[in-house]
Amino acid sequence: MGKRVRMTDDSLNSHGSRVLTAGCDTAQYERNPVLLYMHERGKVIGYMKDIEVKDGEISGEPVFDCATELSKQCKKQWEVGSLRMVSIGIDVLELSEDPEHLVAGQTAPTITKSKIFETSIVDIGANDNAIVMRHNGKQITLGRDSENPLPMLSNKPQTTKQQMELKTIALKLGLPETADETAVLAKIGELKLTAAEVEQLKKDKDALTLSQVTSAVETAIKENRLTPDKKEHFINLGKTIGIDSLKATLDAMTPAAKLSKTITPSNGGTSPAGQKTYNKFSEVPEEELRKMRSENPAEYRRLFKAEYGYECNI
After folding, report:
1. Are 59 and 7 within 8 A, CB to CB?
2. Which has the closest alpha carbon to 253: 225, 291, 288, 229?
3. Whose C-alpha in 22, 185, 299, 312 is 20 to 30 A from the C-alpha of 230?
4. What count of other Cβ atoms lies within 10 Å of the Cβ of residue 82?
């Protein structure tokens, strides 16, 4: 049984690029899995069998046909270990400079889509998984010393995920995308200060509104537009509708008449039309008598004395 070898994986090669295994098409090559020597056409020394794509790498087993002296020599050297590298030849179909495809030290775009057209036994490759590439009609014939047909990455500095996040935050804060971490933190500090100031202004405004609303409600109670038990209700109403709307509501309310104005003394005075006057304590209805006791004690005492002939102590 021969030695299974890794033909390629996602690692960085000496050309500063990577070939993504997930985008490497082996279908065509598996129909003609030719094994060359040093990527040279015409130097066929065998074929690759049992080609497998698994766990982010492509592997296979080289079979030497021993039909030529070169094939026999390569087989011997492979068995003793003086030749031990294989290298795939690929057509480059698609390149990417997307940060998610770049790794530290990468200088050329990542090959995200490619197609294998041959595999070779090589002495020195671009890396442990040497690769020959064809791109835009140009080919890298050997890994280490060949011309690289791939373009270099653009002059933009390599962008990491953290840098992308910093750029996004800077733009959201209204800063240029080139703003560094210090500038971003300073802007966030400014916004926090502004937010605190806004919160304090809101608290001050709420306190002023509450003071105005409370004063308006208390004035309405003094003017008999409201009874004391309605104080909290109208204060809460004022906080909701605002001081101007509350004042308009209270001004539209008619003050309640005091009992002292509805019960007119009968000591020679005149009563408004339709109002009842009393001369004696016993003539006053019980409900009005209770109101008179609290709101007009002088009249209460007068009627009491008129009824019973002596003063009452209230």
Report:
1. yes
2. 225
3. 299
4. 10
DSSP string covering 45-84: EEEEEEEEEETTEEEEEEEE---SHHHHHHHHHHHHTS--
Please tell me the distance from the alpha carbon of residue 99 to that of residue 104, in angstroms, as a whole number. Answer: 11
Residues 6+ apart with CB under 8 A from 60: 4, 5, 7, 33, 48, 49, 50, 51, 52, 119
Number of Cβ within a 10 Å radius of residue 188:
12
The token pair at 194 is 């502004």
Backbone angles phi and psi of 182, in degrees to 5: -60, -45
pLDDT in tens, 84-100: 888 888 999 999 888 88
What is the C-alpha separation between 63 and 2, in angstroms, rounded? 7
**pTM for the model:** 0.45
* DSSP β-ladder status, 57-64 and 44-54: antiparallel
User: What residues form DSSP beta bridges with 139?
Assistant: 134
Least confident of 51-55, 175-179, 306-310: 306-310
Q: What is the 3-state secondary structure (H, E, C) of 85-135?
A: EEEEEEEEEEEECCHHHCCCCCCCCEEEEEEEEEEEEECCCCCCCCEEEEE
279's enclosing H/E stretch is: none
